[in-house]
Amino acid sequence: MIPPSARSRAALGLTASAALGRFELQICSACAAVQYPARETCHRCLSGSLHWREQPGTGELIADTIVRHSNDMYFQERLPWRLGLVRLDAGPTAVVHLHGGCAPAPSRVRVAARLDKSGHGVLLAFPIDEVPNMADDRQLREMTCDPQRRRVLVTDGKTAVGQAVVHALIAAGADLVWVGYAEPWKESAEFAALGALSRAALLPLDLTNAQSVKKVAAEIGGDVDILINTAEVHRACGIASPSGDEAARSEMDVNYFGLLRLAQEFAPAMRYRGADGESSATAWVNLLSVYALSNFPAHGTYSASKAAALSLAQCLRAEMRSAGVRVINIFPGPIEDEWNQMLPPPKMTPAALARAVVKALQDGVEDVYPGDVAQEWFTRWRENPKVLEKELSAG
Ligand SMILES: [Zn+2]
After folding, report:
1. pLDDT confidence of residue 243
2. Could you tell me the distance, in angstroms and rounded to a whole number, from the CA of residue 34 to the centre of ligand 1?
3. From 223, 232, 237, 240, which residue has the greatest number of CB atoms within 10 Å?
4. Rounded to the nearest whole angstrom, what is the distance from the C-alpha of residue 26 to the centroid of ligand 1?
5. 82-96 burial, b if ≥16 CB within 10 A, otherwise e?
6. Residues of the chain with pLDDT > 70: what percent?
7. From CA 210, how far away is CA 215, in angstroms rounded?
8. Mean pLDDT of 78-101
9. Is domain 12-141 classified as CATH 2.40.50?
10. What is the CA radius of gyration of the chain?
């Protein structure tokens, strides 16, 4: 069961920016009027030249109410629900969902955009100053995927990133983290340390083996609230690899087919538990790469496998949407690991990447470009993908 999800094409602009964790409204380039709700032409001068721009969100709560009756099935199950009317400092007045920490009207608030259970942008007002246990708000928790008190599967705990993600989840209050591992003969002190954590449980999981994925899904699939796919193979090579197609095949086998096998076995149970109230399945996280947007020839076959995974993740997102389970894609730049040794800094540390994963869950966003390098690539790609391709091909 999801909230009403019909949106006009113009209104999808709010959803697109909320998916990145931003609150944007349209600004008229002729008269500078800020528009709300989204529209095709300026409400003041009828110009069709409207551009989405990030907003500070500050404003005055001028009225608030508690809804105790609704004809909508989604809200019927979640009443009472707090709503307010905010006059934004930027101009327009908007109906918003109200965080429980907001003082009654009249009071100052900060409006932000969030994705609701249907995956669409809605406005939510927060108190200006932090209040204790801010993330625990019942209405806010409907729009986020906070790992606190949830059970999480991290598919590969053998990598430095996988290990950092496990530690970050436990620090964020996850109830239990299952840690998958393949290649049991590869031992490390960091991996062994995970086994000693009271809220972590190690289990064999090989994404290249459909039977292994099926077996783990049968054991724990019905209990996983959040799945984080950290498994990946990364060889630093272009098309002319000395090993023929072997590197490209192993990258595809984990980065693309591994995701497909996971989705085939885990997605049905997670969809089924998408509306299970407080203990529902809530998110699926894919560790992709900013190279999924445009091929980085020095890591060409890896880029191709991540582009394939991105396309499949979009399919998974569409299939999970009606169940209210969010699919979150993380697009890091180079990470400080063995495959990027030849690349000059800056590189992202596994710990920083893990913090970005947890924050994405807490904010309930869909797409994250963590770190300066990924942010810069993403900005250049949005400006002009062809120019970025030419720059990358020049080395
Ligand atoms: Zn105008």
Report:
1. 77
2. 8
3. 232
4. 10
5. bebbbebebbbebeb
6. 99
7. 9
8. 96
9. yes
10. 22
List, by residue range, all CATH 3.40.50.720 domains of the chain. Answer: 151-393
What is the pLDDT of the chain when averaged over all its residues?
94
Report the distance separating Cα 4 and Cα 352, nearest Å.
36
Q: Which helix (H) or strand (E) holds 308?
A: helix 300-321
pLDDT tens profile 233-272: 999 889 987 878 999 999 999 999 999 999 999 999 999 9
DSSP 87-117: EETTS-EEEEEE-TTSPSSSEEEEEEEEE-T
pTM over 0.90, yes/no = yes
Give 128-136's long-range contacts (Cβ < 8 A, gap of 24+): 128/58, 131/101, 134/99, 134/101, 135/362
Quote the pLDDT of residue 340: 80
| pLDDT tens by residue, 361-377 | 999 999 999 999 999 99
How far apart are the CA of 21 and the centre of ligand 1, in A?
26
Residue limits of CATH 2.40.50 in the chain: 12-141
d(CA 41, ligand 1 centre) in Å: 8
Ligand 1 centroid to residue 49 C-alpha, Å? 8
Fold of 151-393: Rossmann fold (3.40.50)
Helix, strand, or coil here: 64? Answer: strand
